[in-house]
Write a structure and sequence with these properties.
Layout: H1 6-15, H2 20-39, H3 50-57, H4 64-83, H5 110-122, H6 129-142, H7 146-151
Helix pairs in contact: 2-4, 3-4, 5-6
Amino acid sequence: MLNSFFPEFYTYCKALNLAPNSIKNLKRYLSQLNDFLNARNLVSVEQITYAHLSDFAAFNDAAPSTVKARIWALKKFCAFLHLHDYIAVNNANGLSAPKIPKKETGFLSEDGLKIIFFYLIKNINKNNGWRNFLILTLMAVMGLRKSSVSALDAADFDAANNR
């Protein structure tokens, strides 16, 4: 039922400068929506109700992140349909995405850190031993992340002034 709108919608998405990965995800969710609506024997976009959109968002006991992504896709698509006068009312406006709790950052315990440093010191004269020791020391003492450590350059250190 929705297939006839897809080419124009994807052109619209490109005009909005959506990332290629975002458009790829939109295609996936809208294909799922199309199958969902076809299974309910809907024949035109005017028949799509808020209940249909809400049911689709939570379809198959979807995880909160999937529900959020589906709602995002529904809002984009319904806004397009409404903007181009394919539908009179944008039923997706009332949809609200679930709050997804942030994952807490996990830290090593003091004992865990000791175990790692004992291993590193024991193997310091082996291949890459000093490098590994320095990397983990920077991460543990200064709280640097992998990306920050890998971005470091020799010019970032001032050996003369111990900085």
